[in-house]
Amino acid sequence: MQTLLYSSLRYSAALRLCEKLPFSPKAAKPQSNAKNNTQAAILFLLLCAPAFPQCDSAKCHVGIEPMHASPAAQSDCVTCHGGRADTTDKLQAHVTPRNRKLWNSAANPIRSYAELNQESPEFVRFVNPGDLRIADQTCGKSKCHSEIVGKVRTSMMSHGAFLWGAAFYNNGGFPLKRPVFGESYSHTGASQKLTAIPPPTPAEIKLKSWLPELWPLPQFEATQPGNTLRVFERGDDRLSNRGFGTLTRTDPVFQGLQRTRLLDPLLYFMGTNDQPGDYRSSGCTACHVIYANDRDPAHSGHYAASGHLGYSFTKDPTIPKDQEGHPIQHRLARTIPSSQCVVCHIHPGTSYAFQYYGYMWWDNETDGDRMYPAKSKIWKPAAAAVSLLRNPEAASLKGNWSDPKFLRSITGLNKDNKQTQFADFNGHGWIYRAVYKHDRKGNWLDKDDNKVDFNDPKKFDKAVHLADIHLDKGMHCIDCHFEQDSHGDGHLYGEPRAAVEIDCIDCHGSIRARATLKTSNSAAAKGGHDLATLRTPFGTRRFEYVAGKLVQRSMVEENVEWPVSQVLDSITPGSSNYNEKARLAKTIQNDGVTWGGAAGAGKLAHTDERMSCYTCHTSWMTSCFGCHLSMKSNAIRTNLHNEGDEVTKNYTSYNFQVLRDDIFMLGLDSTAKNNKITPVRSSSAVVVSSQNANREWIYHQEQTISSEGYSGQAFNPHYPHTVRTKETKTCTDCHVSRDNDNNAWMAQLLLQGTNFVNFLGRYVYVGEGRHGFEAVAVTEHDEPQAVIGSYLQKLAFPENFALFEKKRELTEAYEHPGNVLSLQQRGEYLYVAKGKDGVEIYDIANVDNKAFAERIVSAPVSPIGQKLYVKTRNARWIASPTTLGVDPARKRNPENEEQPIHPLYAFLYVADAQEGLILINAATLLDGDPRNNFLKRAVTFNPEGILNGANFVMTAGNYAYVSCDRGVVVVNIDNPMRPAVISVIPLKGAGHTALQFRYLFALDAEGLKVIDITDVTKPIAKAALPLTGARDLYVARTYAYVAAGARGLAIIDVEKPEQPGTPKFCTLVTDAQAVRIGMTNASTFAYVADGRNGLRLLQLMSPARTEGLWGFSPEPKPELIATYKTRGEAIALSKGLDRDRAVDESGNQLTVFGRRGARPFHLDEMQKLYLRNGQLYTVTNTPPGRPQ
């Protein structure tokens, strides 16, 4: 009616009509003689809004929906959009863009990014009145939503400071853990600084994560490298002949954030509008105008019927109905589905919204047989550049999903998939797989915990899809995150969860009281917001007690509601919601025996004050082990932020590596979250590479170091958003099982690592005795960096695989002479034990650089600046205390709330058969100064000859385990300069050892021994497994891998360490001397030094053969896939980078945590999970007795 009236009445006629109403347009208020002022006001708005001219709808936008659903809030076209309403000529009525090539239709342009900043404010307003540059003139008018617009402009969804802050600090680019840089633009599109008024106090900065200011992201040309890799060091003809910050001696992190799509675009820019999951506008409109992104009703509600291609269903005849990039209708909505939130809450692909759905990133391998073309794609540089703008993952160039048409129909593959199901949304061009319930062996489980046959054609229906229980109830994001969480509260926040006001207890109550319906989380106002006052868009109360039960009603679907369970009911016998498991978990006391009642907080084992609810209520969580950021020159790219200028020819692709859903880890949350016990995940564990203009790799697959010296293999406290009722954590998920079958699980839980997801990279270093060593290329160079001969290589590199398959022989390697008995790579150096020649460190920074004829050198600079060797009498083994890049010498800033790095990590540890244990200080290798690398022994330790015959050394926490003639001698190195023997484990012919949580695994002349070291001062032998010829040992999760000489590779089940299984021998190797395990994408590999046969590569697990692929420890089934014939006998291997180890066995932190105050447990905090009064404390998943 409204549109028809507007189209048939001229402005003057409408004004005359309005003059007859009991409401004066000029007075703008009801007159006293009006019988029904409300009706009159509505009629005035509908027919008149006479102070404003209207578009001639009869000839243009006939039938277009009014933007506001409420008739009391109508406005005309030009009030919001600007332009002219006194003409029907399109060019005259519409505002003209400066870039007509980009804005060539009514649809949102594809990947407009910072080009929006180049347009006039008038045009920005014309295409989107909700854009934050001009929203104060439209949505934010004084009588509308001015306060909300101000809050949104300072919200994290607009400035994105958190991601930038974490990227800089975690990778050494900026010294403050508090974010300093954020995104914000002025009315004209100029970058602007955000300042908090009044500024937060120091206490508010620390406890609330409020920020005083945020600066625009600076241009990379003004930056200095935070990680001083060899190529950044002074001297020689490198990146600059001058100091830091000159020529290209700048920080790659700053450059990558400017040009690589990560997290962005945020609210100041439109969505990329190029694939399902990326359709949206900017500013207010980004959320309140709905686009078709996902066909799943659980994600999109009633909007799912509109598809996922960003098509319009408006009645406006001028809008094409088959063109992507349009909203579903010309209508502002409060019924915002989760699919609208997911467009932005996408990165990493392991984060928040996707887990809520029960999905995570696909690994580029599982069910990949139809994801790659039979013949490799050949890309022209310009076309590849465009594709990478859509999806920054370089592996996509190898796959079918680089084709948007393929991506749109990817769910059509699900009917034939064997391992997973793909999602209907593909934001960033990524693919997401469903997560299903499974046990630790990988067996799929149904709702009753029965195993689902892998070959059952209905297995995807029978197995439990682990979506969040709130999603199963029908909840969308806005049903939990209310107005303040969505818009912000006006403060600048540095952590996402610090900006959240809702907490579990607000709706579900506690063991002592029912819900108050008052918000109480970090960002809640004093006293909280009263949820009982909220209403849905349909006019009903969002929360209401009905017949004594709390009910919540949907914000998206009318007439949809669900009961809100109360914690108090779950622990109350006789209640319809009573749950014994919940009662046990919530009321068990510190003694581990008493349970049943709501005791005082000081007695309870799991209190709300010390633990986050989701510590137990998490069903699964993601871990992303490794992100390869590979920078290439000769790649002109536009700046995605600020001015959007083209000023560089470098581009960094973004390539995730190992993605798992089987891991559960705990630590302490940030200071802003009260340092509660909370789930922790690996995320943004970066390795970096750079190729220069001559296509020379000046550094390759190097790890980063955070600003204060912790490894850049980052971990973070995390809310997984995978809450379930039945599929929660049980007692044996966090405590030692009475069956003693979770030793590996406990090592993972406590962040000590399991050696399963380790990264060996492109080169495996093989020691060959008197023939020196070789760096053997074992993977493809391009992404995905598939292991040569593997299932993934067959998929992604079909031509290369076909050629290789004929002989399965590796051919590329780089050697260096010497007498090499033991070797260990860390970063750009290789540590080598050379017997009577002592110890030497080799520079391997240019092992992948074709510009170097000698890629491995022993003297990278003149003797004036370095001495990378130490003479010893008979160095048999060299050990780095960690494979991670850890720099104890960095300065501390108290504001960052970091723990000191233990000084033991400044040393290398050498087992010398004649001199005992030798400590060498190697800390200067990480300081970026090539002029001070003079190695010298710091300590020689062999009291009374106790370490005579030392042949192996391993460190774990504050202890070194030295294998020698006396057995295994445990040496306390808490004070590295004053080591002390604390215990001796008598073994005959003690050899290599490995440690996992409470057990030491040791080889000797008789075989494998298992020793309980819960109290390392009193080791207790627990098991002996006869095994002749054992040379080397590697324990990865629940399996021990023993290189057993002529008997091959022995694989032993040590899930129950005190009851090791019968060895299964892999005879594909016949002279096994050493073994290491690593993971690439979804597959696990064993690298075996096979003596006279050279280096062997065994694929232990792959999506094509492993039914229990997603289990914590599926059974390995070796398959020989590649061999490299070494120059001499292969006798030693370097261990890969530990990607799941954030802390050592003594509680010393190793990796950076991306939140201020967050950290792994200290030793005494770990011990609370498994010791009571100094004795081992074990549990079952059943109550310890009757409730009391």
Topology overview:
Layout: H1 2-8, H2 11-19, E1 23-24, E2 29-30, H3 37-47, H4 77-81, H5 90-93, H6 121-127, H7 146-153, H8 156-159, H9 161-170, E3 194-195, H10 202-208, E4 213-214, H11 252-259, H12 283-288, H13 297-300, H14 338-342, H15 353-357, E5 359-361, H16 381-390, H17 404-408, E6 432-434, H18 459-462, H19 469-473, H20 483-487, H21 504-508, E7 543-546, E8 549-553, E9 561-563, H22 567-570, H23 580-587, H24 614-617, E10 623-632, E11 651-660, E12 665-668, E13 677-691, E14 697-703, E15 711-717, E16 736-737, H25 743-749, E17 763-767, E18 773-777, H26 791-796, H27 798-805, E19 813-816, E20 822-826, E21 829-833, E22 839-843, E23 866-867, E24 869-870, E25 875-879, E26 907-912, E27 916-921, E28 933-934, E29 937-941, E30 952-956, E31 959-964, E32 967-972, E33 980-985, E34 993-996, E35 999-1004, E36 1007-1012, E37 1020-1026, E38 1032-1036, E39 1039-1043, E40 1049-1053, E41 1064-1066, E42 1074-1080, E43 1083-1089, E44 1095-1101, E45 1119-1124, E46 1132-1133, E47 1151-1153, H28 1163-1167, E48 1171-1172, E49 1175-1176, E50 1178-1179
Parallel strand pairs: 10-13, 15-47, 16-50, 23-28
Antiparallel strand pairs: 1-2, 3-4, 5-6, 7-8, 8-9, 10-11, 12-13, 13-14, 13-15, 17-18, 17-46, 18-19, 20-21, 21-22, 22-24, 25-26, 26-27, 27-29, 30-31, 31-32, 32-33, 34-35, 35-36, 36-37, 38-39, 39-40, 40-41, 42-43, 43-44, 44-45, 48-49
